[in-house]
Amino acid sequence: MKRITLPAGGAVLATGLLATGLAGVVQARDDVTTDPMARGTAQASSVATFWAASNGAALRAASAYTWDAKDVRKVVSKGGVSPDGSPGSAPPIGDERKPVAKVQNVNLPKTIGKVFFVDGSGRQRWCSATSIQSHYRNLVATAAHCVYDTDSDRDVLANWIFVPGYYQGKAPWGIYVGKQAFTHHDFDVYEDYDRDYAFVTVYNGIAFDGAKQVGREEYQRFSGPKRSWGKRYYILPARDVGRLGDNVGGQGVAWNQPTGRYVRTFGYPAAPQPDGSKPYSGVTPKWCYGRTTGKAVGAPWLKIQEHVALKCAVTPGYGGGPWLSDYNNNRRLGYVNGVTSTFADQDGNDRIDLITSPYFDGETAAIYKAARNVWSGKVVGPNGELYK
Q1: Between the CA of residue 325 and those of 142, 334, 336, 339, 352, what are the distances in Å?
Q2: Which of 287, 255, 256 is nearest to 269 (CA)?
């Protein structure tokens, strides 16, 4: 696969990550590029076990992407964005009926969480993400740099999972292993950050209840994760917790919308500010609210020509989180109309004060539509065994 290496600096804080053993043959259809992630139930179970082992030790060890503070730059305002067709949208899961009551405080959406993966140095990393509407209720939206390796000629990142509602090593609604990734051809091949978005289908959620000591015969019959020491035999039975959208819902998706609209953005900021201050821990999600820029935002060194921007003083870890228009506090649902891609310091005081997102247009809609009708399936069976 041909790739063009871009400077690591600038407003974008993208991770350089390695997809160990998960890359496959890339399939492209027009602007849609799709890559396999965990292939089959055995690999999916292995990925889930990697993160869940030792009471979520790998989850707790993971960190948000960090960067050289000198690389945070000021982005440039340009002309307006260019919709390539009529506005369109897909409604959120569970928002078919509009509520009457209005809530003034901000209720965090159940759909948001963290995506975890392993970088090229073997370190556990994470970004923010959200569940979105799809036919099989199995789809996650995040930034493409949180799915695709931008530093090597490999494809998707290793051991990729989504954990909605993640909190300090806990996965309250289960672990959802990535099955297939969809992004724009221009990001996959040219690392064009105007297309820094991705949609990932995930298997049914998996939950683990701890190791169980069994006899030798049951140990031999069990097809899931297991280990023996001397004459002691242990299995790690798993539970199928169902589809992502059935458990936490799914945000809608909108494209070719006018700029200058109010949005709420969500994510898990964690890294320090360029001046060294550490206002966020990455433990709990945060939000910003405001009107997006009416003009496009450019960053020539990253080939960015048509991002939209929002005033928001968050830090990396927030990357990949959703920008929700028409957010309903009561139902905690809205329409994903962007994902956090880059961070910028506009007034030069060594503190991030602006975030940007690719403009969601008809080409974004094509990527989303290619992903939303793809089935994933189960990983484990009724007795904790690998599903066949």
Answers
A1: 16, 6, 7, 12, 23
A2: 287
- Do the beta carbons of residue 116 and residue 340 sit within 8 Å? no
Asked whether the predicted pLDDT for residue 248 surpasses 90, the reply is: yes
What is residue 152's predicted lDDT score, i.e. its pLDDT? 62
Measured CA to CA, the distance from residue 377 to residue 259 in angstroms comes to 37
Classify domain 27-98+110-204+243-372 at the CATH topology level.
Thrombin, subunit H (2.40.10)
Task: Give the C-alpha separation, 243 to 378, whole Å.
Answer: 9
Task: Count Cβ neighbours within 10 Å for each residue of 16-33 and write b for 16 or more, e otherwise.
Answer: ebbbeebbeeeeeeebbb
CA dist 210 and 239 (Å) reads 11
Measured between alpha carbons, how far is residue 113 from residues 47, 222, 244, 319, 366 in Å? 18, 32, 12, 12, 24
Using 50, 70 and 90 to split pLDDT, how confident is the model at 94?
low
Domain extents for the chain? Answer: 27-98+110-204+243-372, 211-238
Helix (H) or strand (E) holding 177: strand 176-184
**Would the CA dihedral through 248, 254, 259, 262 be positive or negative?**
negative
Which structure tokens are listed for 125? 């990393």
The conformation of residue 71, written as its DSSP 8-state character, comes to G
Band of the pLDDT at 108, cuts 50, 70, 90? Answer: very high
> Judging by beta carbons within 10 Å of its beta carbon (0-12, 13-18, 19+), is residue 350 exposed, middle or buried?
middle
Q: What are phi and psi of 362, to 5 degrees?
A: -65, -30
- Measure the CA–CA gap between 199 and 228, rounded to whole angstroms: 39
Sequence-ordered list of residues with C-beta below 8 angstroms from that of 88, at least 6 positions apart, any chain: 254, 255, 256, 362, 365
Check residue 72 and give its pLDDT: 64
How far lies 62's CA from each of 128, 146, 205, in Å? 13, 14, 20
Helix (H) or strand (E) holding 21, with range, is none
Give me the half-sphere count of Cα atoms (radius 13 Å) on the Cβ side of residue 44.
Answer: 30
Enter the pTM of the model: 0.85
Say whether pLDDT at 288 is over 80: yes
Spatial separation of the C-alpha atoms in residues 258 and 312, rounded to whole Å? 20
Closest CA to 175 of 225, 235, 218: 225
Structure tokens at 95: 């928002």
